[in-house]
Amino acid sequence: MDGTSSLQLKQNSASRHTRKRKQKHKAVDPLDDDRDDCRNNCMIEELPDDILISILSCMRIDEAMRTSVLSSRWRYLWRYMDIFTSDTLVFDYIDNETGTKMKRKKFKNLVNYVLNSYRDPFLDTLVIGYNKLGARSRHVDNWIVFAMNKEVEDFQLDLSNVDWAHCGYKFPKIEKLLSLLHEGIEAPFRSLRSLVLVDVDIEDELVRYFLESCPYIEKLCITASKTTKYLQIVDSFGYLEELEISHCSNLQSMEITALNLVYFKYKRKKIGLPFKNTPKLSELALGGDFCESFIYEPNEHSSYSVQLVDLVLNLQANNVFYFRDRTIVPPDSAQLHNLERLELIIESQVGESLLFFTSLIKASPHLQEFKIKIEYLVTVANRRDVQIRKMLSFPEVSSVEASRFNHENLKVVEMAGYCGCASEEILLVQLSKIATSLEMFVIDTRCDYFRECEVVTYRLREEGDMPMKKKQKKTTTTRLRAKTAKKHAEKFASTFPSQIKFVIT
Fold first, then answer.
1. Cys-Cys link to 310, which of 120, 283, 385, 473 (CB 3.0-4.6 A)?
2. Dihedral (CA of 401, 406, 410, 412) sign
3. 458-480, pLDDT tens digit by residue?
4. Residues 126, 103: Cα–Cα separation, whole Å
5. Which one, of 484, 504, 295, lies nearest residue 413 by Cα?
6. What percentage of the chain reaches a pLDDT higher than 90?
7. DSSP letters along 244-256, please?
């Protein structure tokens, strides 16, 4: 009896374990337990491998990897995804669909696995973006070596932090790259056409190497490099068309000789004029002290400003430059004679006059499109309103002064960051009087409050931005809301003649 009971207990125990195994198997197996029903009703198992691999290629790599537990057939299918044979690899630690951020260890492991599994001998594009990887990350060294040995044409490495803390990672020296170069490759990055480095320290010698040894390079972007000091941009091969040097805090001088350079972007302190020989330069984007010098000291930039067709000026709050003497563009000099498109990005306070910027329109007789994007500075830690106003104030220009000319070519005016205050309307009304051929106003009211460090701004919502959850204590400035602004813009538009079209978002 005891033996029988013992046997039954063992059988029952075995039966329970069997049921547990079946239940566990069922939890991870998307197929039905009944194999006959599965074959009849679930057609995915009957699809050829090529189709299944195509399906997996539509998924994120981390999602596709999870399918390896489904069955022995699925175990290795994900390794044949298009990503491992694609000519483009893009890694971003932020999921574009959900906005969630990938943890550093997981991100490193993912990038390392994909790059180690990549089978093709060549790769066209490699884009890697992650913050807080550290100044001595051997992983980043390996990613750069991978790009070099796959002879990439487009390489982008962005290690910038949201809080603007400098990463400190230093691009490997050329001697190290040469020592790791695969046999049969003529020189490091010889096939390179585009190089974008953000928050990566790169020395002048390496910049010179890329320009002298990469015969096809068309685009070079260096942002927030602390080891870039004395730049000699000499395009020996004539392919360089786009150049950006921004936020390089230790930059002392720069000279540019590039016969086919079309676009140049520079943000930081004022340096000597960098344009030594740039006959085709027609698109320019400026920020920092150099931008303010361009606006308030136009005669210093007349040697190249006359050839510009597209101009972007970014005027941010500044504690130094705004205490210098500033002048309006000389009334009789059209130093932007060929300009067709002008964009201003400014910081201001609600109610601050914007009429000063009509002087730039006056200096651009062939201007067709004018855009002004406004970011309103609401509060700054340890600053009173009077101090903030001094940081942001522009030269006073009356409506009478601003209307002393007519503009025959301006057709489109766009205002982004509109909140519905009087100074915005005064500018728009003034432009409608000045521009005799004006066809359309575009007004963007999709704004919200944002906190960045110790500053609160009211500005346009960009893709991926996260507005403040808690609004500041209500003041005259902070009562503004996007819905109210849109209604205000619609009412404002109704006061204009019907021949001027309004687009309001």
1. 283
2. positive
3. 888 776 676 776 544 444 444 45
4. 20
5. 504
6. 45
7. EEE--TT--EEEE
